[in-house]
Design brief:
Shape of chain B: elongated
Helix content of chain A: 40-55%
Largest interface: A-B, 48 and 49 residues
Distance between the termini of chain B: 13 Å
Structural class of chain B: mainly alpha
Number of helices of chain A: 14
Shape of chain A: elongated
Order of helices and strands of chain A: EHEHEEEEHEHEHHEHEEHHHHHHH
Order of helices and strands of chain B: HHHH
Helix content of chain B: 55-70%
Number of domains of chain A: 3
Distance between the termini of chain A: 81 Å
Strand content of chain B: under 5%
Oligomer: heterodimer
Structural class of chain A: alpha/beta
Strand content of chain A: 5-15%
Number of helices of chain B: 4
């Protein structure tokens, strides 16, 4: 016998008088009810089910009757984020904190440099800013830019685990060259980190997560599902992805079936970056074990004291510096007075309106796209030779100077430079620029005259060079191979 | 002198000059050059630590230490801007995927596979 309550209302004139309406109202969450009714009443029941926040699980037709199995819809659990959410500052916008989706737009642009006034105004490219805005306007809880594979990801984790309502992370935008942040984030969610706090299986060069508790990293991986739109920059697609994530009923978006599953069933984690390692990009492979150990142990009291001391000392120096700068400004004014320049300093300002003179300056001819690319090609090649010849000059005084491969590499470089000069002759770039590049090529060829070009015995064969199968001279020449753009 | 120290010293002697040359290029403002400089300085620091723990005769140790010191001074003198940013990301470096200081100059250390 089934435990499910059944109501047979066949023959009833309406569902209210048959008590169905009241029963649906009083159903508790998840409780199942079977209703057997005349087929003609089915539409009315379906309407009532919607009205009373229930859902139909199964419908069976028997002769002129219908058996409907239904239940009260489970309420979607939404929770309050942690106090101080989002805990980390960054370049992001906040939206509805009950939304199940956050959006990370990869940022391929220079960061503002605080000490360089001319770069202070560098802004996030408008197309990226637009993606962030579109994401929040469509309904994301958080949307922001992500640039680095270490501190950037740590900040993202910190902010996401502070809000258990966030269950999806949309990753979009073009991959960050050099950092490979998109690849790092994908690998983190797929593989996690190893005991050296390094993201497993990523191409990102310094994907170290030193500054965030392991608990937060694990929570992040459990809490969110990645919607991988790496490389996508179309606002409409991002908007569709965000919209799909907060639908009550599953919808298909690309390869994903998305709906709002409610909050993650564990309390929010409130954490901030420890900044034990402020520059993870400077960490060497051999330092990882030591750092991981230190993180495990936490900062000792002595270390904390040292850190505090350093901060206080630095602050004092900064204050002294500021005062000295002020004194020097005042001394400059006094010096000018002694030197008889006080009149100039004190002289009242007289506004004079000069007659307007139209001056036609000789215009530099605008470069065509082809010419620009030509110049870029030769400039890039010369940047490579700059490094190659510096290495050759260093190798001259090494055992390679009397060896086989340095002279061979130098001869190859000479040939390549001569070819480059021939190409330059045929290039459509302006004559002035051609002259400049030609003189730089000559400069390298002159340097080559001071380098060994007569091959001697291979120093490996002679038993002197024991570095392994590699070769410094060939390695130096190979620097040129790194220059792959623009193609010719 | 042990082959390890000899090879490492040869490597750093070859790596530092191209980094110096690149510091006169747009790499001066680049995080790649800054990173490569840090790698050299740290690498030499590690070499000094290894030297202290090695069983090399005192005379040789002193010789290696003085060469490490000289190379460290050269590395410190690599001119890098106070604030750096990836010049590819900034749209100034257009050589392709690679980075001249990191893949090119520092990459020369990878030629050393022995001992």
């Amino acid at each position: 016998m089934s435990d499910v309550e059944a109501m047979d209302v066949r023959g009833a004139c309406c569902l209210s008088t048959a008590g169905v309406s009241d029963r649906l109202e009083s159903l508790s969450e998840g409780e199942i009810l079977e209703v057997v009714l005349d087929e003609t009443m089915y539409d009315a029941l379906a309407e009532l089910v919607r009205e009373k926040n229930c859902e139909i699980l199964e419908t069976k037709k028997e002769d002129n009757a219908v058996m409907v199995r239904l239940q009260k819809k489970k309420r979607m659990l939404k929770v309050k984020p942690s106090a101080g959410y989002p805990t980390e500052e960054g370049s992001y916008l906040r939206g509805n904190e009950f939304s199940p989706v956050a959006v990370a737009v990869l940022l391929n642009a220079p960061r503002p440099l605080p000490n360089q006034p001319d770069t202070k105004d560098i802004k996030i490219p408008p197309e990226i800013e637009n993606l962030v805005r579109v994401a929040v306007e469509t309904g994301a809880a958080l949307a922001g830019t992500l640039q680095t594979e270490n501190i950037g990801i740590e900040k993202l984790i910190s902010n996401v685990v502070g809000n258990p309502n966030i269950r999806y992370l949309v990753l979009c935008g073009a991959e960050v060259e050099g950092h490979k942040t998109g690849d790092a984030l994908k690998a983190l969610l797929k593989n996690g980190i190893n005991d050296r706090r390094t993201i497993i299986g990523t191409k990102a060069p310094t994907a170290y997560l030193f500054n965030i508790p392991l608990e937060a990293i694990e929570r992040f991986r459990e809490q969110v599902t990645l919607i991988d739109l790496l490389g996508e920059t179309n606002p409409e697609v991002i908007s569709k992805a965000v919209w799909s994530c907060y639908q009550e009923k599953p919808v298909q978006f690309k390869d994903y079936t998305l709906f709002d599953p409610g909050a993650y069933p564990k309390p929010a984690i409130s954490c901030r970056l420890s900044l034990m390692v402020e520059h993870p990009e400077e960490i060497e492979e051999w330092e990882l074990d030591e750092i991981a150990k230190k993180i495990k142990a936490g900062l000792t009291v002595e270390e904390k004291k040292v850190v505090e001391k350093v901060i206080t000392k630095d602050e004092k120096f900064a204050e002294i510096g500021k005062r000295l700068a002020k004194v020097s400004e005042e001394l400059l004014v006094i010096a000018k007075i002694f030197m008889g320049e006080e009149a100039a300093v004190e002289a009242p300002r007289v506004e004079v309106t000069a007659p307007r003179v139209e001056v036609t300056l000789p215009k530099e001819e605008a470069l065509s796209k082809v010419e620009e690319m030509e110049i870029l090609y030769f400039e890039n090649q010369l940047r490579g030779y700059n490094a190659v010849f510096a290495a050759f000059n260093a190798l001259k005084s090494d055992m390679c100077g009397g060896g086989l491969n340095l002279p061979l590499a130098v001869n190859k470089a000479i040939k390549k430079l001569e070819n480059l000069r021939q190409d330059l002759g045929k290039s459509p770039m302006p004559a002035k620029k051609k002259g400049e590049i030609d003189s730089r090529i000559n400069n390298f060829l002159k340097q080559a005259e001071e380098l060994p070009t007569e091959p001697g015995p291979c120093q490996k064969t002679a038993g002197n060079c024991k570095i392994g199968p590699g070769c410094f001279a060939n390695g130096a020449l190979d620097i040129l191979k790194l220059i792959t753009e623009p193609k010719r | 002198m042990s082959v390890h120290f000899k090879n490492q010293l040869r490597g750093y002697s070859v790596v530092i000059p191209p980094l110096q040359a690149l510091s006169r290029d747009l790499c001066k403002k680049c995080i790649g050059l800054e990173g490569a400089k840090t790698k050299v300085i740290k690498g030499l620091k590690k070499l000094r630590m290894d030297l202290e723990n090695s069983s090399l005769p005192e005379g040789e140790k002193e010789d290696v230490a003085s060469r490490i010191n000289r190379l460290s001074e050269m590395a410190e003198e690599i001119d890098v801007a106070e604030e750096t940013t990836c010049q590819k990301t900034a749209g100034n470096c257009k050589i392709g995927q690679a980075c001249l200081p990191l893949d090119g100059a520092w990459g020369l250390m990878k030629q050393i596979a022995e001992p």
